[in-house]
Design goal:
By secondary structure, the chain is of the alpha+beta class. It is built from 35 helices and 47 strands. Strands 22, 23, 24, 25, 26, 27, 28, 29, 30, 31, 32, 33, 34 and 35 form a 14-stranded antiparallel sheet that branches. Strands 1, 2, 3, 4, 5, 6, 7, 8, 9, 10 and 14 form an 11-stranded mixed sheet that branches. Strand 19 and strand 20 form a beta hairpin. Helix 12 crosses helix 15, helix 20 packs antiparallel against helix 22 and helix 23 crosses helix 28. The longest helix has 22 residues. This is ArfGAP with RhoGAP domain, ankyrin repeat and PH domain 1. Its main location: cytoplasm. One of its GO terms (biological process) is signal transduction. One of its GO terms (cellular component) is cytoplasm. GO terms for molecular function: GTPase activator activity; phosphatidylinositol-3,4,5-trisphosphate binding; zinc ion binding.
């Protein structure tokens, strides 16, 4: 730096840098010359209030440079003038408030600023109107004053001004700007060019008044240019803004449109006006190949395949534009970030639909900006619409495929092509915002320590986040898990965005420690099987980071661990030294950072560190003042002992599919196998040192033990890896096989699930699952299958057992690869993360859940430990055959009985007995055959004779006591089954006057059956007769239960047809009426209204409703629908309700419709049985309802093409439609329907429940009425029972009203023609 440059005043120097706004800050700091600024640092600039990173870099770079010639010569260009308000549109001022500055003489852009003295004003032609008339004006040579005088308000504004080259804009306030602050001349420029005199002649026309140039704002002028678009151009680093006219072709004619134009080093932009922030179009200067003058006042900008024509207001201005554009495009290679003739380098790109436009825009996210193009071709040739600076942007998701990009000036509402793409777009724009707000200076400093360039947890390169209290630098994915620990454990900060947090002392802490040294404390005992990699999933990261920092599981324990007093004393001593790592170890091994030092002058370790000038120690303690201490275990954690084992095994080639065939001995090869340091390796022989293959314990996800006769070798086991490979090993030695299985399982099963290793498991491994309390996130669980019991250890929970034969339902959803296990009060969803091992788990669990043998304990059981076959047969006979004459004495058809027995044996849970599909005698014979063929019998082989001998005891009380003693000796399943059967037979004999099966007849049938005798004597019958006769006393039945059963039997015996008693509510739940339930909905409605003496008035519509309180839904029953099946399908939260149908009048007009289509909002949720898939919100779908099916499409237009299949399709006959939707689902409208789908397939019954929302109530009524019209037409063909002659028959579609004759006519008419009742000629009008 020369002496003259060193003596330059700060005021002049900042004027050259265009940073005059910091003059007062430099003067306040005592800096008056450039020489005094040579030793400035970034921290000093921060203290002076200069916080913008770009301004800091500019000041530091120029103050430390050896010469200022780069600022004063015309080769490099002056820096970009800063904006007073970032991203703010140019402000417009009227002539009255801001009079035009004196015009200047146009000067050639190629002139050196040092050569500019007192130029003479030249004559020039100025465009004054559309007729292109020109006038000349001259002025005398004058010297421009340093501070130009304020022009008079009455001074006329010139028609046009000279467009000065960049060299004349760097330091002086020429005719283009009128600043309230006195302009500072360039250090090399003592005089300004003289102003042009005002134009003489007519009043000004054409362009509006010149906008005033605010201090440090963009240069502005008034120029005419022919263009459809507004263009803004900036030569190299100085931005120019101006009005131009752009030439466009409309109806084969050229027109010029006035636009506001900007030019910078990368883009030529044009706007509607000077107040707009976002352009109408942009042209990349990288693609401009030529700029030349064409005709009067015109010039053209030529790109690789397009030509843009512009028109200025004068020749001088046109020449200035051409010169500046040529300089910009010619010198852009030295200044621009873009390569010539190459498209913008993007981080993410693709088509997005912008709300308000019919077509999609090609959108590009590049660094800290978002660019919009009409199509991909425009992107490739560098011609776009606008760019959006992301430093003021914010991204918000609005819908399934939509999101908003919000700026202070406009909201851009985008829609992606899919939900997955939407997530990718949102992530890309969030990264762009982070890039715009980021500063890499801190990150570069932190990464100077080599170990800090890799994540402390997973080893990912270039981590950009840090936990400032834990002193670790981590990657973005690990930082998300650190935030989950909470700020009391991990204080996460960004290296690039949280600039104010990173003090010099904190940076030095991270440089002095580094991830490698810090991990010598935090990760001293990490087992290889638990270590993270950059590709680890979020669940593995969460588990590892929780163990590492919350539990301190892997830390290196301090020798003073557990001794609080000594830890505190050691901390107070150590903070006086420079050993920061020791302080970290003391703090996170239990030392109290707020402990008392015992010194009044330094009462805390923080004050003690400051007193000894240990700033790094003070910084570490300050960041941990509120940190919660780690878990203090009495016994410090020690890593698990290494499992090792070796020996010969026989191995087949690894496979990518499940083994379905038997592997012969010839297919196995003898291999030497070793298990050591968490790696299972196999060699050609025990002499080889290089393994043929290896499998890390962390890669093993499942171990399956095969049955002894499964393959050629007696004992085999299978290993499943994460890479979807299956390894089969075998041996003939049972002890060796057992030791290998135990060792391998111990190597990959974590300590939290160690109790599983003590079980004699058939299969053990890792699966992901969800339970009914939390369906949003999956948990990692460790499972072991032992017989018919599935043992599970879910994370953060104790072990539990799932009895597979007691499940209410077991199903596999193939599409989503989910195994659903439904037990009482809970549903467990096991997910198939990998197809290979998941298919093995499904098959094994299904086999274990089925009937495993011929004993009672091996059957599929209910929650009360009763075999499902017994429970189903008893329930069906109670419902449909209790009053059947000769029940249990008549035999069913042998072929049908054998088929039922086989179905029950294969999977009793999936078989549902239904009236009409199964015969009562077939079911009763199936039940008897089951007990006769039962292994060991119901009474067990060892006690059966004792039961028979007890029947001969004469003393009744002694006999009952003996029976009770024998009953208590039975296994639990046998006892529960016997009680259920005797209770059923007790009910059967109570209605013997109807079924002719009294106590003696039942004993004759069931005695030999249950005791499995030949029936030659009545001994077995006498025992069964005693059990039925003394049922109350032997089984100690409670009085209330006995009274209820007696009441039911009394009602059955006194009611024709043997009806069941049910409770029906009238209008509201407070009033009840107990009536027989074996009737149709019409009969039930009539009966209730008759009993209550309620007359039916005109225009009143009464219906019988099925109401479910839990699901918040209800539906009217069809008049011929039988009530009894509805009652049996009820849960505890459902009931029947007789009430008026107030909406019937409004629905009558829709009853003729047998088809409908339209848009509805759809949501599917798992039913109570766990079927279906869960979606988080309601989504728009297009539905088509016909007489046969309900079809759902993703979009409206797909229905127009027959080749497009619907997304889903359901047969209408299997649908039940209810009014109402659960409030907890937060439906978008209150007009909703709940639809329940039940398949009728015996092999695989299925139940689904989903929800539909309509926009209006009439729309909902129309859909509901159409459903009922179609379904009731179907029901009409299925119901064979004739409608009774009743006074008040009421139905969902046949409301009863008016006189008795009218009501009868309504029902009769509907019975003959379901659609005739809705014609205008009938009585409903």
């Amino acid at each position: 730096m020369s002496q003259s440059e060193a003596s330059m005043t700060v005021l002049d120097w900042l004027g050259v840098l265009r940073l005059e706004q910091y003059t007062e800050a430099f003067q306040t700091a005592g800096l008056t010359t450039l020489g005094e600024c040579r030793s400035l640092t970034q921290d000093q600039l921060e203290q002076m209030g200069i916080s913008l990173p770009g301004h800091q870099r500019r000041i530091l770079a120029k103050s430390s440079s050896s010469s200022l010639t780069s600022l004063t010569s015309d080769a490099p260009l002056p820096p970009v003038p800063p904006r007073s308000t970032p991203n703010c549109p140019p402000q417009r001022f009227t002539a009255a408030l801001s009079p035009s500055p004196p015009p200047r003489t146009p000067v050639s852009p190629k002139l050196d600023r040092n050569a500019i003295q007192t130029p003479t004003v030249q004559n020039r032609s100025v465009s004054q109107s559309s007729t292109s008339t020109s006038t000349s004006s001259t002025s005398t040579s004058t010297q421009a004053p340093l501070h130009p005088p304020d022009p008079s308000p009455s001074q006329c504004r010139p028609q046009s001004l000279a467009f000065l080259p960049p060299a004349l804009h760097s330091g002086s306030n020429g005719g283009r700007k009128n600043s309230p602050v006195s302009p500072i001349p360039s250090p090399t420029e003592s005089q300004s060019a003289p102003p042009l005199p005002p134009k003489t002649g007519a009043a000004p026309k054409g362009p509006p008044p010149v906008p005033q140039r605010l201090p440090y704002d963009n240069c502005k002028t008034s120029v005419c240019c022919c263009s459809k678009n507004i263009i803004c151009f900036q030569s190299f680093e100085c931005e120019y803004t101006v009005f131009l006219f752009v030439c466009v072709l409309i109806d084969r004619a050229l027109y010029y449109q006035r636009r506001w134009v900007k030019l910078d080093v990368d883009y030529l932009r044009y706007f509607d006006n000077d107040k707009e922030v976002y352009s109408k179009g942009i042209i990349s200067t990288a693609f401009i190949t030529n700029v030349s003058s064409v005709g009067e006042l015109k010039f053209e900008v030529v790109t690789s395949n397009r030509t843009f024509i512009f028109r200025a207001e004068s020749e001088a201005e046109r020449n200035d534009w051409v010169t500046v554009l040529q300089d910009c495009t010619g010198g852009r290679s030295r200044h621009s970030t873009m390569n010539p003739n190459s498209p913008l380098s993007s981080d993410f790109q693709g088509y997005l639909e912008l709300r308000g436009l019919r077509s999609k825009l090609y959108t590009v996210v590049a660094s800290d900006k978002v660019f919009l193009y009409k199509n991909m071709e425009d992107y490739r040739i560098g011609v776009g619409i606008t760019s959006i600076d992301m430093n003021v942007g914010n991204v918000k998701v609005t819908d399934r495929r939509s999101f908003d990009l919000t700026t202070p000036y406009r909201i851009f509402s985008f829609m992606a092509e899919s939900e997955q793409l939407k997530e990718q777009w949102v992530d890309a724009m969030h990264n762009a915002i982070g890039e715009a707000l980021s500063n890499s200076e801190v990150a570069d400093q932190i990464w100077m320590e080599r170990s800090n360039s890799l994540c402390a947890d997973c080893g990912a390169p270039k981590p950009e986040w840090a936990a400032i209290n834990l002193c670790v630098v981590v990657c973005k994915r690990c930082a998300g898990q650190h935030r989950g620990l909470g700020p009391s454990i991990s204080k996460v900060r960004s290296l690039k965005m949280d600039r104010k947090v990173w003090t010099e002392e904190l940076i030095q802490v991270f440089l002095s420690l580094g991830n490698e040294r810090v991990n010598s404390f935090w990760a001293a005992n990490v087992p290889p099987s638990e270590a993270l990699t950059p590709s680890s999933c979020s669940e593995e990261r969460r588990r590892f980071i929780t163990n590492k920092y919350r539990q301190g599981k892997y830390r290196k324990y301090h020798p003073l661990y557990g001794n609080q007093k000594e830890l505190d004393n050691a901390l107070c001593i150590n903070v006086q030294s420079s050993d920061v790592l020791e302080t970290l170890s003391l703090i996170f091994c239990g030392a109290d950072v707020n402990c008392s030092t015992g010194m009044p002058s330094c009462p805390s370790p923080l004050s003690l560190a400051k007193a000894h000038s240990q700033l790094l120690q003070a910084e570490l303690i300050k960041n941990n003042l509120n940190t919660v201490g780690l878990a203090m275990d009495v016994n410090p954690y020690s890593p698990p002992l290494c499992v090792s084992h070796n020996g010969f095994l026989y191995k087949t080639a690894s496979m990518a599919r499940a083994i379905t065939e038997r592997k012969a001995r010839e297919e196995f090869s003898r291999r030497w196998c070793t298990l050591n340091d968490g790696t299972f390796s196999y060699y050609e022989s025990d002499k080889n040192s290089n393994p043929n293959g290896a499998l890390k314990a962390s890669e093993i996800v499942c171990l399956a033990v095969d049955a002894s006769d499964r393959h050629g070798y007696d004992h085999t086991f299978e290993l499943y890896s994460e890479s979807e490979r299956l390894y089969l090993f075998g041996t003939d030695d049972a002890d060796s096989h057992k030791e290998w299985v135990k060792s391998i399982a111990k190597s990959f099963i974590p300590a939290s699930a160690e109790p599983l290793l003590r079980l004699g498991f058939e299969r053990i491994g890792r699966l992901k699952c969800k339970d009914g309390l939390n369906l949003q996130t999956s948990k990692v669980g460790w499972f072991a299958l032992v017989g018919s019991t599935l043992h599970a250890y879910l994370e953060d929970s104790r072990g539990e057992e799932i009895h597979l034969r007691k499940l209410n339902e077991l199903s596999i959803q193939q599409d989503n690869e989910v195994l659903v296990l439904v037990e009482r009060g809970r549903t467990l969803y096991i997910e198939g993360e990998r197809k290979l091992d998941f298919s093995g788990w499904c098959g094994a669990i299904q086999i274990a859940a089925g009937s495993g043998g011929d004993t009672l304990s091996q059957q599929q059981l209910t929650e009360t430990d009763i075999p499902i076959i017994v429970h189903s047969c008893i329930g069906y006979i109670t419902q449909c055959g209790l009053t059947s004459e000769g029940i249990y004495r008549k035999s069913g058809v042998n072929s049908r009985v054998a088929a039922l027995c086989e179905r029950f044996r294969r999977d009793a849970r999936s078989l549902c007995l239904r009236e009409g599909e199964h015969q009562v005698d077939d079911v009763s014979t199936t039940l008897k055959r089951f007990f006769r063929e039962l292994e060991e019998g119901l009474f067990t082989s060892e006690d059966a004779k004792t039961w028979l001998s007890t029947a001969s005891i004469q003393d009744e009380s002694m006999k009952i006591s003996q029976y009770q003693m024998l009953l208590n000796r039975l296994p639990h399943v046998n006892k529960a089954t016997l009680q259920a059967l005797i209770n059923h037979l007790y009910c059967v004999q109570r209605v013997s006057d109807l079924n002719q099966m009294n106590l003696h007849n039942l004993a004759i049938v069931f005695g030999p059956t249950l005791f499995q005798t030949d029936g030659k004597d009545y001994t077995a019958g006498r025992a069964i007769e005693d059990l039925i006769q003394h049922y109350i006393h032997i089984f100690e039945v409670r009085v209330r239960a006995h009274a209820r059963a007696s009441y039911i039997m009394l009602c059955i015996s006194t009611t024709p047809g043997g009806h069941i008693i049910c409770t029906v509510y009238l209008e509201e739940k407070k009033e009840t009426a107990t009536i027989p339930g074996s009737m149709t909905a019409a009969e039930l409605t009539c009966e209730v209204l008759d009993r209550r003496n309620i007359p039916v008035k005109d225009k009143e519509y009464w219906s019988c409703w099925e109401v479910c309180n839990k699901e918040e839904m209800e539906r009217p029953l069809h008049y011929q629908e039988r009530v009894l099946p509805i009652l049996h399908s009820f849960g505890t939260e459902s009931h029947l309700l007789i009430k008026k149908y107030h909406s019937m009048e409004a629905m009558i007009c829709y009853l003729v419709d047998v088809s409908k289509h339209g848009l509805m909002k759809f949501r599917e949720e798992r039913s109570i049985l766990g079927l279906g898939r869960t979606t988080g919100s309601f989504n728009d779908r297009y539905f088509i309802l016909t007489s046969n099916s309900l079809r759902m499409y993703k979009e409206v237009r797909v229905r127009l093409t027959e080749s497009n299949r619907p997304e889903r399709e359901w047969p209408v006959k299997n649908l039940k439609v209810y009014l109402g939707i659960k409030k907890r689902l937060r439906p978008p409208t209150c007009w909703g329907l709940t639809v329940v789908y039940e398949s009728k397939k015996q092999e695989k019954p299925e139940k689904q429940q989903w929800y539909l929302c309509c926009d209006t109530q009439p729309e909902m009524r129309e859909w509901f009425a159409t459903f009922l019209s179609i379904q009731d037409g179907l029901q009409q063909t299925r119901v064979s029972r004739a409608l009774p002659d009743t006074r008040h028959g009421n139905v969902s579609l046949i409301p009863l009203r008016g006189s008795e004759n009218e009501m009868r006519n309504s029902v009769a008419a509907f019975s003959q023609d379901p659609l005739a009742v809705s014609q205008p000629t009938n009585h409903w009008d």
